[in-house]
Amino acid sequence: MHDQKPEQKCEPARLPLSSLSSLFQHFGEAVCSIAVLRWIAPAEMGIWQAALLLYAGITVFRLGVVNAMARDYPFHLGESDLPASEAVRDVAWTYSVLLSVLIGIAFLVSSLVVYILGDDMWSKALAVLATYTVANTLIPVYESVVRGSRDFGRLGRIQIISTLLSFATLPIVARSGFDGFCLRIVVLSGIQIAIYSWGGGGSFSLRWDWGRFRHLMRSGIPLHISNYLGLLSTSVPRIVVLIFGDLALLGLFAPVGSILSFGQAACGRVKAYCYPQLSYMYGRGMSARDISRSAVRMSIGIFVIMLVVACIVYPVLPLLLVEYSPAYYASLLPMQIGLFVSLAAAIEFVLMPLVIMKQHRLLLISSILQPPILFSVCAMVALFSPDSQLTGIVWGLLTGRLLWLAISAYLVFWRASIARS
Question: pTM, whole model, 2 decimals?
């Protein structure tokens, strides 16, 4: 099947435009995340940062269904098997709707219980997590059905609208502080679900097929474990901060986390566009060698773009914190280091062929190694820098990610058969 030449190629003229809209969205989200610091105290922000650890924990229940659909949907389209592509799409959508409803109810009940126990701040955070989780469970399904550059353009416009709304809702936080911060997240989550359902590029139906579900789960669990370990790895700095500090110190980590999240999410969005395209081309006959080379070129391109952004933002940060958010000035050096930690996310593109060619064993080895490497290096550096633990943790994160990427590059280029096929 894979000996023939591909009959169709991606349309590169439109792909960069949609990728830039994705970068604009995540850059805007990072700016808004830092902007709200003017009205939120570090201890209050620490509560939300701790709540995000709960969100990271419950994503384990996704079971890789959407991960598998993201690969199988464009692959079936590449084989011109429209009924199969629609079936996997609808089963993944049905499961995601059911899961989001159950988790949303669980968080709302937890919020009510905590409120009765007398903790008003945590009660609000858990209530916000309900809508936040629903949005972040459903939206990836919409994005995963994107195949061609025409759909990319549509999603690009949605992302631009979403970003503008993020800026437009900042006055809610300025007016009401932490209460406004919580309300803003709820409002944005609801609006984003509505926008994606209106223009998300697909017609979804609620239907169930146990055979399709079991296939998606079996195929997706290895990918899900890899992605979940990656999400766990992004939580490692917060966990280490809580071990060595308190909620106030975790709140000071928030602007650093915004920068790290921008790098990871921006690369993830670009990857989400490129991944179905390469999977589609693999279904049309593109060789494994060409898939690997394309991934390397993508990695280099996004690295250069993010390096330029980091060099522009670096000298602006001191002025921003002094004039705008002096309560977070202790986060300055960690934020500047975080700019360059985020560049490592671009290098992770070289792992994408492992997913497309279902090299699950090597992918799992790489993913399993990441959390313990990051945790041990971050904790060790923080232990030996008690006077500047936040800075030490971010330095440890940079060192740990470089070490993990070196090991992963070895797995891809010297051990993976796809690199030599």
Answer: 0.75
